[in-house]
Amino acid sequence: MTTSNQALKQWVSDVAALTRPQSIVWCDGSDQEYDDLIKQMVSDGTLKPLNDETHPDCYLHLSDPQDVARVEHLTFICTVNQQDAGDNNHWMAVNEAKQKMNALYDGCMEGRTMYVIPYCMGPVDSPYSRCGVEITDSPYVVINMNLMTRMGADALARIERDDTFVRGLHSTGELDPERRYIMHFPEELSIMSFGSGYGGNALLGKKCHALRIASWQARQEGWLAEHMLILGLESPTGETHYIAAAFPSACGKTNLAMLIPPEKFKDWKIWTLGDDIAWLHLDAEGQMRAINPEAGYFGVVPGTNEKTNRNAYDMIQRNTIFTNVGQTEDQQPWWEGKKDGTPVMDWKGQPMAGDGGPAAHPNSRFTVSATQNKAYSSLAEAPQGVPISAIVFGGRRRELAPLVYQAKSWEHGVLIGAGVASETTAAATGEVGVVRRDPMAMKPFCGYNFADYWSHWLSFSGRSDKLPKIFHVNWFRQDQDGNFLWPGFGENLRVLQWITQRCDNKVSARETAIGYLPNDDDLDIDDLQIDPQVWQSLLSVDREQWRQELDEFGQYLDSFGDRLPGELRHQHQQVRAALD
Length: 580
Ligand code: GTP
Ligand code: SPV
Ligand code: MN
Description:
Blueprint: H1 6-19, E1 23-26, H2 31-43, E2 48-49, E3 59-61, E4 75-77, H3 82-85, E5 90-91, H4 94-105, E6 113-121, E7 130-136, H5 139-148, E8 150-151, H6 153-162, E9 166-171, E10 181-185, E11 190-194, H7 199-202, H8 205-221, E12 224-226, E13 228-234, E14 240-246, H9 253-257, E15 269-274, E16 278-282, E17 288-291, E18 296-300, H10 310-315, E19 321-323, E20 326-328, E21 333-334, E22 343-345, E23 365-369, E24 386-394, E25 404-406, H11 410-418, E26 421-423, E27 435-437, H12 450-459, E28 469-473, H13 493-503, E29 510-511, E30 516-517, H14 532-538, H15 543-558, H16 566-578
Parallel strand pairs: 1-6, 3-19, 4-5, 4-10, 7-9, 9-11, 14-24, 24-28
Antiparallel strand pairs: 2-3, 6-7, 6-8, 10-11, 12-16, 13-14, 13-15, 16-17, 17-24, 18-23, 19-23, 20-21, 20-22, 25-28, 26-27, 29-30
Helix pairs in contact: 2-5, 11-16, 15-16
């Protein structure tokens, strides 16, 4: 395979001259190619076949123990003007970054195969989709991109038609954390990644392209690229509402997107459109529509079982790549929260109980095609996407944030999104469990200055009078002993039901300083045996705590200086005043 696109041909030849691979392979995305790469990786030991009876066509990859998560401190946005990247990003000057990367790439593929992966983010026939090409020396990246994107011949044909693509260059290098960088050049639509083979650092279609680069493009072109799941909630009467929800990494997107309704709601149905990223556009009528740019799931494994997420559990029984889980005696994958089986080997490939650590790394992942999900929506491939009724923001907050509340307006909703804060998780290296500000769950992923990003969000209210309603949820409130106050998972359906009732003006609500909260009886929870006092606290607004929160949030907003939109400041003042 090769291409008629001169720019692509030239770039591949320039990269080959720099990295000096032994051979170049243009990936066609075929099953044959996938199978051949699996065979090759099994024979060189980078993939282990799992139990073929219980887990047909499932494989285990153990990454370097120092390469298990995104590395935010090594991730840069490189723009001509530093303030275009904003204080929310690490910044490096374009030339400095390129010099650094070119030195690392010099000869880095000697003795290796260089794979050229044309891919399309979104259905290949959608006007909302965008293409890219990733060049990599990692076969693991190729097989993951095969599951996660529309990759190969169709994507290449579209690139040749569109004559534009995002350039992503990736090499695993020596996996040395001291020689690792993930650089983005949004002004040139290019990405350079070196020294990591893991997830968002290496599968460049995902966070690097579909969020950091795409968010920049989206601002220029008038749309939004967001860290959001997309689901359809079908009521017993057959009406479906589509909801997009942004939660920070490892805070419940995959689980919500695949939710199985509890017994009491068995006539309701959740359809999955996406579990991590949404691209949102206004159509000609001013309706916001969403597509999922991805074609597979790169999901958190620990905690997945038949009770928490049966759809996910079922879909990872076959044709799945596991990264950094443990193994049982008979080569079944094993992780904390799996419920059955006993691990004998941990994610480092060591016998269990050696260092007392977990069998599966807390950020261990499965990669699987979305088509294996029983709840995969028939509209997930629709070129025009689905109409969005509600946008939901959420975080992992032990305290403060109620179970659910609704914004009073689009502008107030933007403030609520900007105010998201959440406890850090194992999805990125660094300390876990500290609350940090994570506006719109995009702190690690917004490719430009947050102040400009909020202006862009606010600008939508001037463009449509039927924008989605905005909500905030928190599944993670805890008591003094660390027990969750809300059962979560399937029971979250009850909250989604209230959200859609609000969208249809079918239920009233209680106005508070922070937004509209459900009346005590409007969420159907009779069968849950929640202590009335607990229920009260899940739906209460502690004024003193909220005043403190708003003051801290205000200081954070101030740090964006003159670029902060006046409207956001105004919204903040209104809520703060209402709390007095
Ligand atoms: P990324 O793929 O990193 O973006 O994560 P995500 O947002 O898709 O998170 P995911 O659904 O994989 O959930 C992460 C962790 O949160 C898992 O360990 C889940 O078991 C847990 N979790 C998800 N939903 C709930 C919930 O409703 N309640 C509680 N207590 N835990 C939840
Ligand atoms: C996240 O960290 O939000 C993920 C996993 O979805 S990664 O692909 O590594 O970004
Ligand atoms: Mn994510």
